[in-house]
Amino acid sequence: MMALTLFLIITLTFFLMHAIPGGPFTSEKMLAPEIEAALNAKYGLDKPIWQQYLSYLQGILTFDLGPSFKYPGVRVNDLIREGLPVTAQTGFLAMLCVVALGIPLGIVAALNQNKWQDTTIMAVATMGVAIPSYVLATIALYLFALQWNLVPTFGLDDWRGYILPVAALSGFWLSFIARLSRSSLLEVLGQDYMVTARAKGLHPQTILFKHGMRNALIPIVTVLGPVVANLLTGSFVIEQIFALPGIGRHFVLSISNRDYTTIMGITIFYAAFLMLMILIVDLLYMVLDPRIKLAEKS
Amino acid sequence: MDQHKMTIPADKWAPIDRGAQDAEFIAAPSLTYWQDVRQRLWRNRPAMASLAFIIFLILAAIFGPMMTHHTYYDQDLKLSNIPPIFEVYQTSPEDGEPQYVFLNSGNFKLYEVNEGGEILGLLRAKRKDLMKKQHIYAFGEEELRVDYSQLPATLVDGDGNPATSLGLKWNQTNWFGTDSLGRDVLVRQLYGARISLTVAFVAALVNFFIGVFYGGVAGYFGGNVDNVMMRIVEIISTIPLTLYVILMMVVFQSGFLSIIIAIGSVFWVDMARIVRGQMLSLKNQDYVAAAKTMGASTKRILTRHLLPNTMGPILVTLTLLIPSAIFIESFMSFIGLGVSVPMASWGTLTAEAVETLRAYPHQLFFPAAAISLTMFAFNFLGDGLRDALDPRLRK
């Protein structure tokens, strides 16, 4: 199933990119026709499209995403390898923030329903959901980096450089998860088995974590897959605003450069990565809820 | 017992209050589901405030640009980067009318204004003292100097004393100031609102038609049809929508129409899923079986019986998808894939403001506030609608 999806995505991206009028070497600078023909021959663009497609597929099977059209001598693999550590670091930290802060905040809000803790957390979370990440990022950049000089404006040279990008990247999903865990836990708290657990005289913490959270986590885990996806796409602007040399930045640059192989390669890389994440989420599901079996799904 | 009862004096007995019988009486008129929803929504303050804001925004976006002589593309480089609020200074010549000026501390230029705050033009410096970091302006006999040896720049008179300030004035020519090319920010904001609202409207419309149709067909027919259709949806939703929209924008070249095509062509997936889920649970209800028994056609069952009952979740999904469509558009514009220049969208306005963030931080304020408030409004409205449509919350 996943291989099929990935194959369809590759095919779709390939033909979309080749449907664009004008080759990759058509630019303002008029190239001599011989040079253009030579370039086309070098990158295999003179062959019929199905042959290009087959050789591209063949490349992907051996984890080779082909050369970049805009940077001579650079391969898409190099761009990804170069950008991945940066994107992975910020993305992982942001994910950590989302899970390690969002869920506890939601629990605190749910346990103190309609008290000041709940109102404050929900007010902040509503703001976090409404303000777009790039707005949050620029305002934070202006206040903390330009006005008060608390953190560097760009780069990841020391730990303070991570604060703003990670905060801006995780802001929306942190708020979203906090809201979701609050409502999910509130629903679970109202269930009969929670009353039963209390009636049995179980320790309140056992009730909350073993009976309450385990059930409340199911809808949260469902969105974690998409969260990873959105942290990835969110990194496009965040990396641009804070000038971080990650994959997102390469992707945006390749779009404005019309570097089709890079666009294609990074898209496919993202898709493969996401499918891996979705698989992990599915496995997590089974751990949380033994009633769910993967075999039944398919 | 009987004897005991007889001992109660007769005057202690009184007829029962008739009011108790009224408890059975239904005082409030019975409400249909939608009347109930409307009432609950009406009582939800944040949702109503949001609705009012959205209506105001729509009116402003439609009529605002007609009411001003500014256009979104007219440039005036002499009057660039003017702030919306400035401090007005008065010159005091010995003879004749006093002149009013203000200093743009971002570019150290002096502009002439009238008393009300309308901008008359850029003043030319008599000479520039680069050693002392001063620009010297002459007003008849009098001199005013822009001193930028220390930031922020200040306005001093010939002897170095601070000039007479008349306090802060609101810019009457360009209410929101001008951008780096001297274009009126307010009008560009309103055009940005037009684009965002159009995107929202189109996304909602496309969502509604494609999503409801697709989900409805898949859910109603079930079986293999459902299997195949949902597989397609699953494949589409594996890639994040943002990535799709970016690919589309690359293929179609950036521009307003491409944004609409891109958003319209992938955004219906969530809607289709929700409608399908609803359909699956509703189609086995007895009233559908009853309608079938009476010989109603598939079309009639779908449009008359099933669709009205899925309307609630559809509406909520719509109001919550609108902010994400608006966000995607501004996100695209922000990374340079959105509307093409000189068109303005909230995303491009924010991106332009980021470029001049150091010198003119106020330029970030209006687009950031506009997009955030709009997202707030649609989110609150969606939340309010969801609460109003949920009969479990009925009091």
UniProtKB/TrEMBL annotation, chain A:
- Please report the record's description of how this protein sits within the membrane: Multi-pass membrane protein
Q: In its keyword annotation, does this UniProt entry include Cell cycle?
A: no
Which residue range or ranges hold the ABC transmembrane type-1 domain? 84-285
For whether the record's keyword set contains Transmembrane, the answer is: yes
Entry keywords, A to Z: Cell membrane, Membrane, Transmembrane, Transmembrane helix, Transport
| Compartments it resides in | Cell membrane
Read off the Pfam families from this record.
BPD_transp_1 (PF00528), BPD_transp_1_N (PF19300)
Output the GO biological process annotations, alphabetical, semicolon-separated: transmembrane transport
Q: What is its main location?
A: membrane
Q: Name one GO cellular component term.
A: plasma membrane
Transmembrane parts of this sequence: 92-111, 123-147, 159-178, 216-243, 263-288
Family under the similarity heading: Belongs to the binding-protein-dependent transport system permease family.
What is the official name of this protein in its record? Oligopeptide transport system permease protein
From TrEMBL, chain B:
Q: How does it sit in the membrane?
A: Multi-pass membrane protein
The entry's localization annotation reads: Cell membrane
Name this polypeptide is given: Oligopeptide transport system permease protein
GO cellular component terms given for this protein: plasma membrane
Q: Which family does it belong to?
A: Belongs to the binding-protein-dependent transport system permease family.
Keyword Disulfide bond among record annotations: no
Q: Which InterPro entries match?
A: BP-dependent_transpt_permease, MetI-like, MetI-like_sf, OppC_N
Lineage, opening ranks = Bacteria, Pseudomonadati, Pseudomonadota, Alphaproteobacteria, Hyphomicrobiales
GO BP term, pick one: transmembrane transport
Per its UniProt record, what SUPFAM superfamilies does this chain match? Answer: MetI-like
Q: Do the record's keywords include tRNA-binding?
A: no
List residues traversing the bilayer.
Answer: 47-68, 197-221, 241-269, 314-344, 364-385
Domain ABC transmembrane type-1, residue spans: 193-382
Arranged from A to Z, the UniProt key words for this protein are: Cell membrane, Membrane, Transmembrane, Transmembrane helix, Transport
